[in-house]
Each structure stands twice: as structure tokens, then as C-alpha cells.
Q: What sequence folds into this?
């Protein structure tokens, strides 16, 4: 494979990236259509790493390229629509499940989806026994995570950033959610970058596992 | 029209008996803050005496220059009063937005009210220009103080919500829509409430003043209705401008939430 083709396989390329005293990455490539897991101790810079990829944070030096183009040259809002992130404890918007979907579409300026599509998405996240009119704030922790995931699915992204959905969930629910995300991304030949504290999850699902500790990459396997 | 009943200085002095009563209660109940009450009474007296003489001079020597000077002083005082009254820390950029919104919103409302509604001629007649401007500026000052405080606290309390919305690709104005709507409503609520109670719960100051000065209550209510509309318009416009441009002070040019400048006062 020549250099040009190798580049085509990379979704993100990081070179000499520094963010405050939190993170320094000498060189890293995130491969297209692969599942990359980021592991490491808490406070080591994993979430910061994800937030640099969708420009929630700006790096101070170095270069991050998304699809061979410097992140700085993208409109940050367009970039986030293309590279959405599911945070650790996603905020459920007040109102019904449908309100959550409608608001997400409004945020992303996608207004072509209807009730039938909403019900389909609800089924895909395993919540077919719920109605769109159910109060989203009264759902359990695991169900809220599913709704947050369903909101992301509405955006139909090619790449997804997932910060460990484990903080408030039991191990079983956590794995169910992760399996849902992985299946969704795999089915559409997408790219997933997932932060997890669990080595078991990383070994089971990760095609590439990057260990970040104390703000630097310790290992890539 | 009946003659105006003047209050001579001795009878005016007897009104201070109410402050003495307050003082005695405060002392008896050990509430404290006697110094503050004394200071407020002295300040009120001196300020009003001074304003009485200044207004007499201005009314006797009407000039566009003096009228505009008073307007500038009122605007400046109102802006600095907002800065000191607000309990949360404001960034320099938000302070500039507050000043811009106060001046733009109140000046547009004052000009509309005096030239379209009242049809004032000549335009600088101080008997109308100064008290009406004072009412619009004073109410807008209260509205914008509530609005800016609601905005800063709203951003702090809803940081997670806003960041979540940004991560889903929302633009800053969409992401902060919930916060800005609530801040706007809280800012105009006192004006709406004042309109509801007006005439039944209390007689508003301007109307009372006109009636005491011998004007017909029917003329007084016309002025009061008009001024309430003016106040509502001025508060709405100033708060709307402050929120519209103020939101930008909470984000950088990469649409990232920036709250460091608003941490603690």
C-alpha cells in the first residue's frame, strides 16, 4: 500500500498534539472503519482526547487532521455534526422521548425525519416497549443512555466518539449499551472511538487499543 | 383645577417620624443595619433636594444641550449601577454588551415615545424629556440587571446541557436557547406583574404625581397607559439586545463554551 492509500485509511491523524498540561500525543492515527478503544487510569486525559477530536477543545500546538484536513480549517459546528460525541453522563432534555429526538434534529438542522423513523430508532436501541410520548426524564439510567444513543443515531454519523457509558450503570447494562453502539457502527461500516475503563471491554471489542496514562500514549496494540 | 397643597419645611420634617419609628423598631428587635437606614435616609434627602434645584434650573432654562447632558448622566449612572448591582462576575465583553444594549434600547424607546406617542415640541422640553427618560431608563436598568444575572447563572447551571447540545452539532444560539429564554422571561416578569396590579393594587407613581399636581385622572391614566407601554417596550428591547449579543460572550470563535471569566465575583 503506498503512502497516499495509507492516508486514505486514516480518519484522524494526530501529530505532536499538546493540550495544556493534560495531554501530549506525539503521533497517532485513528483508522477508518475500525473500532479504537482508549483505555487508561482516570484523570489520564482520555476524555480530553475525545474532545480534541470534535473540537470541543482546541489543541495548542501540533496538528490533528480529520479526513486529511486540519481540524482548525473545519467549521466546528459542521465538524461536530459529522463527528458527534456521546458523553459519559449524557444530559436528557426535558420533555418526552419525541421531544428529545425533535430537539436533536433541530440542533443538527435535520428536519426530514418523522414519527415512523423515530419509532424505528427506538426499536433499534431496544426500547420498542416505550412510547414516544413517555417522559424521558423518568427513565432509568440505562434507558437514558439508550435514548442518548438513539439521538446520535438520528444524526446518522459515519464516525462516533463514545466516552465510557459506565459511570452510573451496572456492568451488564454497560455492556448492552456498548454492544448496541458497536453493532450499529459495524453495520454501517463506520468508525468508533471509545473511551473505556474496562480492559475486558477493550479486549472484546477493540480492534486497536490505545493506552493513555498521565497525558501520554503508553501503548498501542 | 384645584390649587396644589404645598408642604412647608416644618411639616415635611414631621414626615421623618416614620424613620424614627423604623429606628426604634430596629433597635428594639436588634435587627441591626441602623447605619444603613440612616445613610439611606440622608442620601435620599440630599439627592432629592439637589435634583429639585437642578430640575428647577433646567426647567427655567430649557436647552437641548442640558437635556442631552442629563440623558447621558442618567445612562452612565444606570450602566454602572447594573455592574455593581449584579451579584455575579461579568466579563469585560459582557459589560460592553450591557452598555450597548442599555443605550441603544432606551434611546430608541425614548425617541419613539416622545416623538410618536407624546408628539413633543420642542423635542427637548425637559419637563417631559427628563422624567419620561428616567422612567424608561430606570425600568430597563432593573430588567437588564435581572436578565444578565439570569444569563450568567443559567450558563453556569446548564453547562452540561449546553455542552451536550454542542456535541450533537448545535450552534451556540440553539444550544443556549433554554437559558436565554428563561433569562428573558425573568427579566420582563416584574414589568408584566406591575401591569397586572396597576390601578387595583396600587396607583402608579407618575399617575399619583399628576393627580396630586391637579391633573384630571383621565389625563393621568392616558399618560400612565402610554408610559407602561413605553416601559414594556424599553425593557423588552434592552433585554432582547443584551441576550442576543450577550450569548456570544460565553463562547469562543470555535463555538466552545467559555465560563472561566464568569467564575466568582
A:
Amino acid at each position: 500500500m503506498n503512502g497516499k492509500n495509507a492516508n486514505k485509511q486514516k480518519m484522524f491523524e494526530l501529530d505532536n498534539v499538546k493540550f495544556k498540561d493534560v495531554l501530549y500525543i506525539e503521533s497517532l492515527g485513528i483508522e477508518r472503519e475500525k473500532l479504537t478503544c482508549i483505555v487508561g487510569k482516570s484523570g489520564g486525559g482520555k476524555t480530553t482526547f475525545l474532545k480534541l477530536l470534535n473540537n470541543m477543545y482546541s489543541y495548542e500546538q501540533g496538528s490533528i487532521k480529520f479526513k486529511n484536513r486540519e481540524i482548525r480549517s473545519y467549521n466546528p459546528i459542521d465538524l461536530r455534526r459529522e463527528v458527534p460525541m456521546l458523553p459519559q453522563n449524557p444530559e436528557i432534555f426535558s420533555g418526552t422521548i419525541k421531544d428529545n429526538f425533535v430537539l436533536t434534529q433541530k440542533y443538527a438542522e435535520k428536519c426530514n425525519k418523522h414519527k415512523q423513523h423515530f419509532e424505528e430508532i427506538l426499536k433499534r436501541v431496544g426500547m420498542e416497549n416505550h412510547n414516544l410520548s413517555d417522559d424521558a426524564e423518568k427513565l432509568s439510567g440505562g434507558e437514558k443512555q439508550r435514548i442518548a444513543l438513539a439521538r446520535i443515531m438520528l444524526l446518522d454519523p459515519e464516525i462516533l466518539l463514545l466516552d465510557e457509558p459506565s459511570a452510573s450503570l451496572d456492568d451488564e447494562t454497560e455492556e448492552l449499551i456498548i454492544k448496541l453502539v458497536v453493532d450499529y457502527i459495524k453495520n454501517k461500516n463506520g468508525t468508533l472511538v471509545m473511551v473505556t475503563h474496562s480492559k475486558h471491554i477493550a479486549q472484546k471489542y477493540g480492534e486497536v487499543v490505545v493506552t493513555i496514562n498521565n497525558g501520554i500514549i503508553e501503548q498501542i496494540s | 383645577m384645584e390649587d396644589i397643597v404645598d408642604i412647608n419645611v416644618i411639616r415635611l420634617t414631621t414626615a421623618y417620624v416614620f424613620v424614627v419609628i423604623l429606628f426604634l423598631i430596629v433597635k428594639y428587635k436588634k435587627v441591626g443595619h441602623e447605619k444603613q437606614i440612616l445613610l439611606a435616609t440622608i442620601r435620599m434627602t440630599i439627592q432629592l433636594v439637589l435634583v429639585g434645584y437642578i430640575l428647577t434650573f433646567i426647567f427655567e432654562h430649557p436647552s437641548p444641550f442640558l437635556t442631552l447632558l442629563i440623558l447621558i448622566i442618567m445612562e452612565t449612572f444606570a450602566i454602572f449601577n447594573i455592574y455593581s448591582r449584579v451579584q455575579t462576575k461579568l466579563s469585560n465583553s459582557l459589560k460592553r454588551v450591557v452598555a450597548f444594549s442599555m443605550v441603544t434600547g432606551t434611546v430608541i424607546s425614548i425617541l419613539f415615545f416622545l416623538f410618536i406617542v407624546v408628539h413633543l415640541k420642542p423635542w427637548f422640553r425637559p419637563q417631559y424629556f427628563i422624567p419620561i427618560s428616567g422612567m424608561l431608563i430606570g425600568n430597563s436598568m432593573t430588567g437588564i440587571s435581572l436578565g444578565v444575572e439570569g444569563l450568567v447563572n443559567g450558563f453556569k447551571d446548564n453547562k452540561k446541557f449546553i455542552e451536550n447540545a454542542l456535541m450533537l452539532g448545535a450552534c451556540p444560539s440553539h444550544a443556549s436557547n433554554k437559558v436565554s429564554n428563561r433569562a428573558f422571561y425573568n427579566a420582563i416578569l416584574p414589568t408584566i406583574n406591575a401591569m397586572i396590579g396597576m390601578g387595583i393594587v396600587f396607583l402608579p407613581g407618575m399617575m399619583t404625581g399628576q393627580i396630586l399636581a391637579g391633573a384630571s385622572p383621565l389625563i393621568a391614566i392616558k399618560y400612565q397607559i402610554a408610559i407602561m407601554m413605553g416601559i414594556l417596550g424599553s425593557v423588552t428591547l434592552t433585554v432582547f439586545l443584551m441576550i442576543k449579543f450577550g450569548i456570544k460572550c460565553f463562547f469562543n470563535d470555535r463555538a466552545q463554551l467559555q465560563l472561566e471569566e464568569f467564575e466568582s465575583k
Observations:
- The beta strands of chain A are 10-19, 23-31, 35-39, 61-66, 69-70, 85-86, 159-162, 191-195, 208-213, 216-220.
